[in-house]
């Protein structure tokens, strides 16, 4: 399997399929590159080169002890991009992967002239946790609860989250899709519990405000109004306002995991943005 070695000796797994303009996908917590299956096949069939990696401690990448923070995540993504010498790339990040992609573009990709466009899908920027500067954020107790659930019984927690709020399967009239739930569990359990535990702090407490202000490539912000994981009003509209060249696309009633359960809609919108 293809791996790249980072500067601190961490092996990062990646997929690299097809030819054409590269699209780099950044997955959410606590998943893997496999969460982008529907998008990677779609864009491969439309003539693009598609690349996705497993974040350190996730999926098939090394379960290292250290470096479970956004700076390392972005540097690891940069290692993959530079190893493959990708240019004129579109970066698409979901949830935590949106934060990773934003930090990558701001600190690595844009200064190196490697990035054409950015897409943030139900992404964590600008910042999730409530602080004096972000009084409308989620209380730290919310994330403490996630840490406790993970530490108490990760396997059960990784069934409960996709069975309920991640895909809005807990909403009236929304029928759970068992294969989607099991695939989420499979991806999560492939990773390391230390990486997942420390990753909660990374996605909830990192402030991406300055990253967003730096980014000047065309950026599409996609967010569902019924996102129970990263609330719409705490993320999408705020990110779009901070970006120099940002566009907000709102999806009425869509859940956090909309890239999977509404792939037919999102893929067409992504393709239109990429071609624009």
TrEMBL record:
Positions of the AB hydrolase-1 domain: 22-258
InterPro entries in the cross-refs: AB_hydrolase (IPR050471), AB_hydrolase_1 (IPR000073), AB_hydrolase_fold (IPR029058)
Xref: Pfam families: Abhydrolase_1
Domain of life (superkingdom): Bacteria
Record PANTHER family: HYDROLASE, ALPHA/BETA FOLD FAMILY PROTEIN, NON-HEME CHLOROPEROXIDASE
Protein name per its UniProtKB record: Non-heme chloroperoxidase
Organism, as annotated: Dyella nitratireducens
């Amino acid at each position: 399997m293809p791996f790249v070695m980072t500067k601190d000796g961490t092996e990062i797994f990646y997929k690299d399929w097809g030819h054409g303009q590269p699209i780099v996908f950044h997955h959410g917590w606590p998943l893997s590159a496999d969460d982008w299956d529907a998008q990677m096949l779609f864009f491969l069939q439309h003539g693009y080169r598609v690349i996705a990696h497993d974040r350190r401690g996730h999926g098939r990448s090394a379960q290292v002890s250290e470096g479970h923070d956004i700076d390392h995540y972005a540097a690891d993504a940069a290692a993959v991009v530079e190893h493959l010498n990708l240019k004129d790339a579109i970066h698409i990040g979901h949830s935590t992967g949106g934060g990773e992609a934003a930090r990558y573009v701001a600190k690595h990709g844009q200064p190196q002239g490697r990035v054409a466009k950015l897409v943030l899908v139900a992404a964590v920027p600008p910042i999730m946790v409530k602080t004096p500067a972000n009084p409308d954020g989620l209380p730290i107790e919310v994330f403490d609860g996630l840490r406790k659930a993970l530490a108490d019984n990760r396997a059960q927690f990784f069934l409960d989250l996709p069975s309920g709020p991640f895909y809005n399967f807990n909403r009236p009239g929304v029928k759970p899709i068992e294969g989607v739930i099991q695939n989420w569990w499979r991806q999560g359990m492939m990773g390391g519990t230390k990486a997942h535990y420390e990753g909660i702090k990374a996605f909830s407490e990192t402030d991406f405000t300055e990253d967003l202000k730096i980014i000047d490539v065309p950026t599409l912000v996609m967010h569902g109004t019924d996102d129970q994981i990263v609330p719409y009003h705490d993320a999408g509209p705020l990110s779009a306002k901070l970006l120099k060249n940002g566009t907000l696309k709102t999806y009425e009633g869509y859940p956090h995991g909309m890239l999977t359960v509404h792939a037919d809609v999102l893929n067409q919108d992504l393709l239109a943005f990429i071609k624009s």
